[in-house]
From TrEMBL:
This is Beta-galactosidase. InterPro entries: B-gal_1-like (IPR026283), BetaGal1-like_ABD1 (IPR048912), BetaGal_gal-bd (IPR048913), Galactose-bd-like_sf (IPR008979), GH (IPR017853), Gly_Hdrlase_35_cat (IPR031330), Glyco_hydro_35_CS (IPR019801), Glycoside_Hdrlase_35 (IPR001944). Residues 12-326 form the Glycoside hydrolase 35 catalytic domain. It comes from Paenibacillus chibensis. Pfam families: BetaGal_ABD_1 (PF21317), BetaGal_gal-bd (PF21467), Glyco_hydro_35 (PF01301).
Length: 588
């Protein structure tokens, strides 16, 4: 295949000697099942785009230190090759940190086993870890560079770094590391369009871009102050937004998006829509923000953009295409055949097993003096259970979970007594009988912070547990990553039982199709379909359904397991053909 000569000539991007405006859309391969990658890419091409952009999450590709994964949903090379097949160029962002509302901003949890780790700076210990990862990742990407006959035209060295720090030595180390590994495409940074962010995030020899949702002229003017006589590009045009639990679902008018795009194209700017297609935070990969308080992101990454969560064009798709065709010649609209979506009806849960009776089936316990964090126990995601014995009698005791991350259910002699939440910390009052009692604490990691100064987000009980001011020592700890539930011993569901519990249902279908699990009537938990963790649900909204892509289903018998934290009044759910993101209620 012939190479792509993508370069800068004055204030213009050039492709093989001809001027080009880059019209790009973000789509994350790790948020879409591989079976649907080509469908989504064809739709991006049909909308008039010439480029697809994706981040590369370190935590997906090196889930344990020294263990690398580039298969299945992590097969980034296949995604790039499919983009090439449908005629798209590729912008790739393999920065060690990606933000992206993704768990820990894409950084792997095992970095936090060292409580003194320094992130995103010129720290040799951190950079050694980056180098070991890049030694595996970057050669795979180099094969697909435009200069080697592939579709990659540009690569990011770090992500919105000016929002975090100002370490030029670090940025230059990353730049030089890519060049040393034979990356010879355009290198770039992306930052907010402010003085401090550009001063912190730009670095010598690297093309700068800016991120924004509106305010085209002043933001590009600011970029040109720092980078005169160069092309201007919005690397993240925020045409939608993400949701936290307990918020209202974010939306943006299609006409407003189209108008903002037209302002960019009139200025001969290039643009990358963030997002074109959002997809889903399957598993435990949602991130969180922490401004005034901790705010975890929902499972859906619908983002209210050009394709919805299950890949259907929205009003924005057509509004944006109408703008693009004013400036660029487009072929007649030709969309792939719609992917079937089906309502399979009610599913009844017929089996159950309580968590506290299943601890040894799911975990091998550790004895520790203090209640250690997940990271100290070598755990990345999921839940963790702490247990200790308290002598009695003690009356009207104030129980304090010091810095619990993120949400804890508390039990005395296996009886639930209350919940403590990181964003709404409260003490619990308990009595300890004369014979003493067993104290149990189940902590849920609801997603590590992915943006800002609080990235070092340790999970579990991060400091300690106090009873009337007295620290409690000597704990049995059960890590519960919840990756494999095959060891659970279910029994018939005949009556209400203690919570938390696993509920199991079987249902039969003739032909797999996309569908949505309606979570009404259930309180909070995690859903698994045929062993696939399809994400978290929570009654506070705004998300009320969980997306199940057809490749997770099979003709014949299918299994759903819910890990429900607080129980339900009716042990059934509905598989519907309609997703629901609605107004949320306060998480407090």
């Amino acid at each position: 295949m012939s190479s792509l000569d993508f370069s800068i000539q004055g204030s213009q991007f050039m492709l093989n000697g001809e001027p080009i405006q880059v019209i790009s859309g973000a789509m994350h391969y790790f948020r879409v099942v591989p079976e649907y990658w080509e469908d989504r890419l064809l739709k991006l091409k049909a909308c008039g785009f010439n480029t697809v952009e994706t981040y590369v999450p370190w935590n997906l590709h090196e889930p344990a230190e020294g263990e690398f994964c580039f298969e299945g949903i992590a097969d980034v090379e296949r995604f790039i090759s499919l983009a090439d097949k449908v005629g798209l160029m590729v912008i790739i962002r393999p920065s060690p940190y990606i933000c992206a509302e993704w768990e820990f901003g894409g950084l792997p949890a095992w970095l936090l086993k060292d409580r003194n780790v320094r992130l995103r700076c010129y720290n040799l210990h951190f950079l050694q870890k980056v180098d070991a990862y890049y030694d595996q990742l970057i050669p795979k990407l180099v094969q697909h560079l435009g200069t080697n006959g592939g579709p990659i035209i540009a690569m990011q060295i770090e992500n919105e770094y000016g929002s975090y720090g100002n370490d030029q030595k670090y940025l230059q180390y990353l730049r030089d590391g890519l060049i040393r590994r034979n990356v010879d495409c355009l290198l770039f940074t992306s930052d907010g369009p402010t003085d401090s962010m550009l001063q912190g995030g730009m670095t010598e020899g690297v093309f700068a871009t800016v991120n924004f949702g509106s305010g085209v002229q002043p933001h590009f003017d600011k970029l040109e102050e720092y980078q005169p006589d160069q092309p201007v590009m919005c690397m993240e045009f925020w045409n939608g937004w993400f949701d936290h639990w307990g918020e209202e679902h974010h939306t943006r008018d299609a006409g407003d998006v189209a108008s903002t795009l037209e302002q960019m194209l009139q200025r001969n700017a290039s643009v990358n829509f963030y997002m074109f297609h959002g997809g889903t935070n399957f598993g435990f990969y949602n991130g969180a923000n922490h401004g005034e308080k901790y705010e975890p992101t929902v499972t859906s990454y619908d983002y209210d953009v050009l394709l919805n969560e299950h890949g259907v064009p929205t009003d924005k798709f057509y509004a944006v295409r109408n703008v693009i065709e004013k400036y660029l010649p487009l072929a007649p609209l030709d969309l792939p055949e719609p992917i079937p979506v089906k309502a399979f009806g009610e599913v009844k849960f017929t089996e159950i097993v309580p968590l506290l009776r299943s601890l040894t089936a799911l975990s091998s316990p550790f004895e520790r003096t203090c209640p250690e964090t997940m990271e100290a126990m070598g755990q990345d995601y999921g839940f963790i259970y702490y247990e200790t014995t308290i002598t009695g009698p003690r009356k009207d005791c104030r129980l304090v979970l010091q810095e619990v991350h993120d949400r804890a259910l508390v039990f005395v002699d296996e009886q639930y007594i209350g919940t403590v939440e990181r964003w709404n910390p409260a003490d619990l009052l308990i009595d300890i009988p004369e014979q003493g009692a067993k104290l149990g604490i189940l902590v849920e990691n609801m997603g590590r912070v992915n943006y800002g100064p609080l990235l070092k987000d340790f999970k579990g009980i991060t400091e300690g547990v106090r009873l009337n001011g007295q620290f409690l020592f000597h704990w049995t700890i059960y890590p519960l990553p919840m990756k494999d539930l095959s060891s659970l011993s279910f029994q018939a569901l005949e009556q209400a039982c203690e919570t938390p519990a696993f509920y199991k249902a079987m249902f039969r279908i003739d032909q797999p199709a996309d569908t949505f699990l309606q979570c009404s009537g259930w309180k909070k938990g995690v859903a698994y379909v045929n062993g696939h963790n399809i994400g978290r649900y929570w009654e506070i909204g705004p998300q009320e359904t969980l997306y199940i892509p057809a490749p997770f289903l099979r003709a014949g018998e299918n299994e759903i397991i819910l890990f429900e934290l607080h129980g339900t009044d009716h042990a059934s759910m509905v598989l519907t053909d309609t997703p629901k993101l609605d107004k949320g209620s306060s998480a407090e």
